[in-house]
Amino acid sequence: MPRTAAAKGRPVPRPFEFHWGKGQIIEEACFAGQHVEPAIQLLEYEGGGQGIRFCYYSLDGRFQRSPMMIDSEDSLEGLRAALASTPKLRALIKKLAT
Fold first, then answer.
1. Residues 40, 98, 74, CA angle at the centre, nearest 5°?
2. Sign of the Cα pseudo-torsion (72, 79, 55, 60, in order)
3. Of 47, 12, 61, 19, nearest in space to 4 by CA
4. Phi/psi of residue 66, each to 5°?
5. For residue 37, is pLDDT > 50?
6. 42 near 26, Cβ under 8 Å?
7. What is the distance in angstroms between the CA of the first residue and the CA of the last residue of the chain?
8. Contact, 24 vs 15, CB < 8 A?
9. pLDDT at 7 exceeding the cut of 70
10. Taken in order 95, 75, 31, 15, is the CA torsion positive or negative?
11. N or C: at which end does the chain have fewer Cβ atoms within 10 angstroms?
12. Coil, helix or strand for 7?
């Protein structure tokens, strides 16, 4: 079952910071799978600009720093369902796929 980021204790919006810039995560689509929780995040940078981050969390909520891997069955369906509640992120993903 898809869960919103807020349901997992990660409020949206919330801050992020990289060495090249910082801003807010303004939307997050996530899905609690069997082993991990894949997430797609819409990042809005201070001073303008947006980005998409594909990442994942452990089931106990810790951010993971390795590549996100999703299976072609449950995780894709779960992320697709979670994207229904993230209109801006969904619109950018559509641009990526067309």
1. 40
2. negative
3. 12
4. -110, 170
5. yes
6. yes
7. 27
8. yes
9. no
10. negative
11. C
12. helix
